[in-house]
Predict the 3D structure of the following.
Amino acid sequence: MRGRMNAGLLVGGVLVGLVTLAALVSFLWTPHDPTLVDAAQRLREPGGGYLLGADKYGRDTFSQIMVGARTTLYVGIVAVGIAAVLGVPLGVVAGMTPSGWLSELIMRVNDLVFAFPALLLAVMLGAVYEPGTLTAMIAIGVATVPAFARVARAATLQVMVTDYILAARAAGRRRPAIAVRHVLPNIGSVLIVQASVSFAIAILAEAALSFLGFGTRPPTPSWGRMLQESQDLLFSTPRLALWPGLAIALAVLGFNLLGDGLRDYLDPKLRRIRAEG
Amino acid sequence: MTLYLLKRLAVLIASTAVAGVVVFAFMALLPGDPAEVALGVNATPEAVAELRRQFGTDRAPVAQFLDWFGGLVQGDFGTSYVTSAPIGPQIADRLGVTIVLVLGGMAVALVIAVPLGTYAAVHHRDPLGAAISAVSQLGIAVPAFLAGILLVYVFAVQAQALPSGGYVPIAENPGEWLRGLLLPWASLGLVQGAVLTRYVRSAVLDVMREDYLRTARAKGRGGTGALWRHGLRNASIPVVTVLGLQLATLLVGAVVVERVFVLPGLGDLLLSGVAGRDLLLVQGVVMVLVAAVLLINFVVDVTYHLLDPRLR
């Protein structure tokens, strides 16, 4: 039975929808060129076509927030994509052969990757190559693989003891066929929840990396770097920190609420498998 | 228990060694020749070869790795190719600041999370209990460095009560040392406290539904008394696990918070190493942080076994 629409799902959906809308509209239109340096508009107060004012280079804050949403979603989608594409097959294989050496190997490697947080991976990548959006996405993606693998494994273990799998095995179906036709569709809802929660964490990681200078390079707007640039103006122009900060917090809150809401909505049975951070 | 401890210890040593291989392979083998980098484009091949011999980078990768990792085990992190300074003492200098930062942040998180999470679970039908859950959800959405910036704005810019950054060694002035750390601790602790509150709440809720707690209540213990005597130990099992994971998150969060508050910790050392293209330094700091995460996981697993007799 599917659950009822809940408040978390609604609020989360609206917040994620707003971020997505801002990102999509920014492709077609922003109030000003977000990267245009304009000395005349330096630290301009909000108003007169500059809804949220301008930063120390005279760039429109609102336009930057809009394009920053695009950066955030882009990094999140690619990072979560990497994590899911690598993590889900590993987790399913480990879950379908729980006592085999392969499963043991996968989970050990998983534990090892777990010891390399996204930030460290990104810093390592950034030390060797030029740091940028690509290194940040790869680092966040790889660091998120263990979360997907663990959740996929736990869900697969639950599915493997059901009668329909037993029936499929008795009918002589091969394991890859069982994985694709029976396991994946049945762990899908858990994975969607995990994707939403991982997306929230990816946004936090991207913001932190951009803040440190290991994320998206200037002049491409990113919320984390907007915060970093605002820090030395905190005494005079605190609103420059307020808007990107609010954007990050609301986007993360949105994906977290969406994940929790989806968990309750999609499949109350699988509620006990928690999405991992 | 002893057998488990030995097995787990073996896993810890093995994973640290494998992590060492990964870090080394990544940092030492992929980028350009440090001798060429140090001497610049106009160097003669003879000078490069001589420097390579001094650095030891002319040897086989396996020999280089064994040399580096063997040194690590004895606390020798090698000598920087860029600054010619030994790396171990630099790390040792900075490690203390980061540990103090992380432990303080953890303490703040626990002080917030245990009472609030327990209250939110016991009173989960009351408005206040529900409010705690909602606020903790908000807290999770705020990254530590953003919390730091907000705290600086409130306490340093507006109230002018605390410094906005900088570090005074405790030996120099304990009062100023403490004042300088209050905001960094709070930035790390508030956010982690929000995350932890949710886990404490759900752990206590789970325990409250258990049969043994109902039995204890039926035998005449008051609700709080029963929870206190039978519940908290059991509720602490999942919380300890999360606490360990959080400690690892805090370590990474500390890197960013050090940047916000200009604290001379490991994170600051790591980032200045990257900026100066001091790869051996970066390699050393990354290894220390990864080893710390592995060690934390080890301690968590062992604690888990001690707390839960069913696992013995």
